[in-house]
Amino acid sequence: MTEILALRRDDRVLEIGTGSGYQAAVLACIADEVDSIEIDPALAEKASGTLARLGYPNVRVRQGDGFFGWEERAPYDAMIVTCASRRIPTPLIDQLAEGGRLIIPVEKRPGSQVLTLVTKSGGKTRAREVLAVRFVPMTGEAGIR
Fold first, then answer.
1. Fewer CB within a 10 Å sphere, N or C end of the chain?
2. In sequence order, what DSSP letters do the residues of 16-44 get, joined into one string?
3. Quick check: bond before 75 cis, omega within 30?
């Protein structure tokens, strides 16, 4: 997923699903600014502390529902979603910069997910299916049917 995003040093990146903070640390080694959102308060707090202790000052972690992105910090050049959503969240598309890329696992039907690359150009988005994947489901707003 990181490779598909083709990150550049000056990219502002948003990660949805901080978890342990590992992916945020990988992103922080490539891009200057990384924001990460984790829905689980305990995981968000632990990851934030771990990333600070390990010396990743260019990562901000926030507890919240990643479905809505981080509007105050937008726009983002790249976004990586590390959990499967039933649909591509409109708030993330809205917060994607011109020329931006979003990589997300999307549930096609129960038990079937596809990694999808969304690009924004000329104010329009284009989605391209990359490959079949298996991720944990996104919770919060995306978990509502």
1. C
2. E--TTSHHHHHHHHH-SEEEEEESSHHHH
3. yes
Which sequence spans correspond to the domains of the chain?
2-137
Side chain identity, residue 83: C
Q: Where are the alpha helices (DSSP H) in 22-138?
A: 22-30, 41-53, 90-94
Q: Provide the token pair at 145.
A: 């049917």
State in words which class domain 2-137 has: alpha beta
Q: How many CB atoms lie within 10 A of CB 85?
A: 24
Model confidence over 92-127: pLDDT tens digits? 999 999 999 999 999 988 889 999 999 999 989 999
**What SS3 state is found at 65?**
coil
Q: Please list, in sequence order, all residues whose beta carbon lies within 8 angstroms of the beta carbon of residue 29, skipping any fewer than 6 positions away.
A: none
